[in-house]
Amino acid sequence: MIKFLFKGLIRDKSRSRLPIIVVAVGVMLTVFLHAYIVGFMGDTIETNARFSTGHVKVMTRSYSDNMQQIPNDLAITGISSLLNDLDREFPGFEWSPRIQFGGLVDAPDETGETKSQGPALGFGMDLLSGGSREPERLNLQKSLVRGKLPDSPGEILLSETFSRKLKVNLGERVTLISSTMFGGMAIHNFVIAGTLLFGQEGLDRGTIIADIEDVRMALDMKDATGEILGFFRDGFYNDDLALSEADRFNASYSSVSDEFAPIMKSLSRQGGMGTYVNLAKGWSTYISLIFIFAMSLVLWNAGLLGGLRRYGEVGIRLAMGEEKGHVYRSMIIESVMIGIIGSVFGTILGLSFAWLVQEYGINISGMMQGSAMLMPEVIRARITPPDFYIGFLPGIAATVIGTMLSGIGIYKRQTARLFKELEA
Amino acid sequence: MENSQIIRIESLVKRFPMGKGEFTALNGIKLSLGQGEFAGLIGPSGSGKTTLLNIIGSLDVPTEGSVTVLGRSIGALSAGEAARLRKESLGFIFQSYNLFAVHTVYENVEFPLLLLKYSATERKKMVTDALDWVGLNDKIKSKPPQLSGGECQRVAIARAMVKKPSLVLADEPTANLDAANSHNILKTMVSLNRELKTSFLFATHDDKVISYLRRKIFLLDGRVDNDVIISN
Do A322 and B79 touch (CB under 8 A)? Predict the structure, then answer.
């Protein structure tokens, strides 16, 4: 009987091809949209993670309480030992010490007098040790407008906008005026190696980036750092894991009574990121559910039309002695077949498109001009395990529900009218 | 040829609701049909032919009276039992063939055997035999849209006969056929009636069909007006 039904399905194009196309298109859109939303939300989170929060961040308890002020006088000390501990006990992360700092950048003229000055937000990170992934993480090479990345001590990167504002060129010297870790005045000279365009106004306004050892020297932070950022090795933020790892660290290292004791915070517990992470989780679920609901209506309609079109066939089957329940079940089996085939094709297509957008992305830099948000310029989809099965939910359930609802007519049908109906 | 009764009808009344009242389609029918009969219900439109065929075919139930088909009381059957009676013992032939358009001739004829869960080997033999009876063994791979009207109706006959039912109910089986095809179809059915001893009951007002009947049951206004048995 299954073979009979399957042959009918294959041969009757309007019974198979059209519903399969409808299911496949719906499933493809569901899969792609889910991957796109997860990618978009994830990209924004990852951008913030790379520039500011890490997937987790280790700092002192006091630094954590005053993080907005970048209080380097509350920095972590003895970080060589702490980094060894982190590498040993938390091998799922790549650990990167960073120093954020504020200061004034002074550009002198030929005579050494101040030509221009401007406030700067600085990042000290590992740029010079061979195996550092920091340049890659911040996409520095591709963000270069002029010059090169620092390859020797004393070199610095400026945002292109900032360099123009200061009227400085590559190879020229600028002076950072800031405060040391101990509250003294810090004055340190750097040579401009290159300029960067981040594409975000907040960063382009006045960012400087230097190797962390230079910054340590400038701010007198020997074997110290403001923050240690941890990044999951697969590159993607996992909130549940980040929270549990942070709890594990804090249980061992953190002390409520010691304001300089290290504390680990997940991305979602820094600033307003928790709200965004929850929003990201919620939105991807809500949008997917709305789409699944809409698809269910479309596929229900397709099932309804299919059921109506086969009125005569169902009639003859009932007249020949097939029980109503059997006819009903056979139509559901058919809809499961259509749902599975359509879902497989739709999932393959959806994953293919999602892969393309994951690999190549959609460039929205034109829309991002003037934005102060840390948002990615290239929106990328992200294929996650749910994308491999999420389409089957609307693909099969909606087709089957549609058939079940439209098939109720079989039970309402009066066999006494079959002769009349079949002669029509 | 005719011997044991396969249909026995006593005081059958069938009423349908119509507006605030009722319409009586069958009014006190008393009738019996023996095994191997080749009979027809003859009458004008509205005389009750199709209603009576419906009730005998267990597609409808009597309002009053009793109808017993192959020993089973139609009024007392559940929907499942009625379906089983149709599946196992009754064959239907319709005016407009009602074949499955996307399935081959072979698959159309095979369908009732799938419902009865015959094995593949049994099905193959039975379908081949049935197509032999109607002379369509050279068309087993054809699909209904590739066949003439006469061929389609022969497929419908093979489908009705393949399970060797005790009774075949045919509602205006030649209405869509030309004279030559109608005679061919009727000869085929007469032949099957004789060879397999299957009873045939037609609902018709087609003279061509009437000329082949060995028993003519005339209905008028829901009653048996005349019942004529033609001697061989």
Answer: no
Instruction: Give phi and psi for A216, each to the nearest 5.
Output: -60, -45
Per-residue pLDDT tens for B51-107?
Answer: 999 899 998 899 999 999 999 999 999 989 999 999 999 998 888 788 988 999 999
What is the set of domains in chain B, with CATH numbers?
Answer: 5-98+145-229 (3.40.50.300)
Q: Are A380 and A47 in contact (CB under 8 A)?
A: no
- What is the C-alpha separation between A207 and A160, in angstroms, rounded? 9
Cα–Cα dist A264/A254, whole Å: 8
Question: Is residue A12 within 8 angstroms of chain B, CB to CB?
Answer: yes
Interface of B with A in 62-121 (CB under 8 A): 79-80, 82-88, 90, 92, 94-96, 98, 100-103, 107, 110-112, 114-115
Query: B200 vs A388, B34, B70, B72, CA distance in Å?
Result: 58, 10, 14, 18
A316 touches chain B (CB under 8 A): yes
CA A45-A48-A49 angle, to 5 degrees, is 85
Joined tokens for residue B143: 């699909």
* Per-residue pLDDT reduced to its tens digit, A146-196: 999 999 999 999 999 999 999 999 999 999 999 999 989 999 999 999 999
